[in-house]
Amino acid sequence: MSNPSLLILPGDGIGPEVMTEVVKIIDWFGAKRGITFDVSTDLVGGAAYDKHGVPLHDDTMAKAQEADAVLLGAVGGPAYDNLDFSVKPERGLLRLRKEMDLFANLRPAQCFDALADFSSLKKDIVAGLDIMIVRELTSGVYFGEPRGIFKEGNERVGINTQRYTESEIDRIARAAFELARKRGNKVCSMEKANVMESGILWREVVQKVHDEDYADVELSHMYADNGAMQLVRAPKQFDVIVTDNLFGDILSDCAAMLTGSLGMLPSASLGAPMANGRPKAMYEPVHGSAPDITGQGKANPIACILSFAMALRYSFDMGDEATRVEKAVEKVLADGLRTADLLGNEGETPISTTEMGDAIVIALDASL
Ligand code: NAD
């Protein structure tokens, strides 16, 4: 069997810096675990614009469609802020998500014990937290028609439309139930069925998918506003949360902050299975290109490294190896090693991006 393929798109700003550290981890798996990937690297965002005049070349798009998984760093930066909307770096990212039809956005919120003090919540509320928000990414109010600003009588009216088809709800529900089976086997579905028809349909379809095909998974329903409250009151009650595009946008950012730093947060966006059974998939840190620290060796590579761990788990069915990476990160943090964004107390000395990557490789060695 041929090696699984990985397309690496480092992008702009700190993207290439953190991706260099991910490549060390990929190389470690080849050298020490006999797990090798066919890796190719290409341009996205401002870097692609500089070379091709577009933020994603058609050839790169074609490679992404073929790859078993895409790993992306970050896009954007001040040099591109005044470009026409159609060629802004973010358009490259949006094109990838749209053309690969990545409808399920996975945002884990995991609190490493060593960083529990970083949360804005009390330590005992977040220590050991491990939840996953599954957000529908390609439909709902961000895409529904009609939309626009229209004239109505002598004033203007702004309109957006929340719209979900049964099949769109069905496929995101299945994604959530499948994930739950690989984790704590619990799903909480969030909508506003009390005030929105799309919420009523959402609840009905999620329940039907559950009853027909996933009765072994524990399912509960919650109004999204209560969900937001529960996330800050007692987040550990959740395992997988599945919700629509708008509520997911807000709830996933809320959950992310339970864990502290932007430099720690990975994400995955998954689509339908390909012919080989693997889902179309793109993995990327939640953070952006961080122009304020680019080129200074200050970027925390952990979000990007944990994104690769998600690829191991969700694209390549290597959950044990993903856990190995997560444990290595945990060990390095428990040993007190910190990039600048993770420093709490005065007098602590930060380590560099490269040193953090090297320390994780050493921790991986120790795991053998
Ligand atoms: P940002 O995430 O780049 O940075 C926000 C703050 O967090 C900055 O102070 C930055 O230094 C810090 N930070 C982010 N990642 C870090 C890391 N790994 N280690 C240490 N510190 C880190 O968000 P922003 O400043 O709003 O945006 C900067 C650029 O990135 C903009 O051009 C924006 O459009 C783009 N952006 C891209 C993505 C993406 O590629 N997915 C996401 C968000 C923003």
Task: Please describe the structure with a list of short key phrases separated by commas or semicolons.
ten-stranded mixed beta sheet; 368 residues; IsoCit/isopropylmalate_DH_CS; NAD; Isopropylmalate Dehydrogenase; 40% helix; alpha/beta; binds nicotinamide-adenine-dinucleotide; two-stranded antiparallel ribbon; globular
Structure, explained:
With 368 residues, the chain is of the alpha/beta class. The protein has 2 domains: 1-118 and 261-368, Isopropylmalate Dehydrogenase (3-Layer(aba) Sandwich); 123-259, Isopropylmalate Dehydrogenase, CATH 3.40.718.10. The protein contains 12 helices and 12 strands. The protein has helices at 15-33, 46-52, 58-66, 89-99, 123-126, 166-181, 197-213, 224-233, 245-257, 302-314, 319-334, 353-366, and strands spanning 5-11, 38-41, 69-74, 104-110, 130-136, 144-152, 155-161, 186-191, 218-223, 240-243, 266-273, 279-285. The strands form 2 sheets. Strands 2-1-3-12-11-4-5-10-8-9 form a 10-stranded mixed β-sheet, sandwiched between helices. β6 (144-152) and β7 form a beta hairpin. α1 runs parallel beside α12. It is globular, with a radius of gyration of 21 Å. The two termini are 25 Å apart. The mean pLDDT is 95. Residues 14, 18, 74-77, 90, 93, 262-263, 284, 287-293, 299-300, 303, 341 line the site of nicotinamide-adenine-dinucleotide.
How would you concisely characterize the structure shown here?
The chain is an alpha/beta fold. It has 12 helices and 12 strands.
